Hints:
rod-shaped, 2 helices, single chain, mainly alpha
Amino acid sequence: MAAHDAIDLKLLNDAVKGVEKEMNGIEMRIAQVAFEKKRAADIIARNQEEIQVLAAEVADLQSLIASDAPALAALGEEKTEAERATGAATRSSRSSRGSGTPGAGDERR
């Protein structure tokens, strides 16, 4: 009986309460990590969906560019030809005026 009386129940009770408090803290942390993990998984899934949507949009735009490339090239050629023609007309107009000084070759005065 003396051995039983020597056990300090208050000390053991405080130790048990400390362990329980630590366990509650760990359980709360586990729940928080599980929530963050689920949230991260949701964000990853949403990002993957957005990547698929953007990839489809990129494919559509690339096919549009590819389909319009010949027309764009033709327009570029027309522009180059028009610039050449304009340049040739400007050069011939300047050479027909003479020296290029005001009044020279201008017979309407």
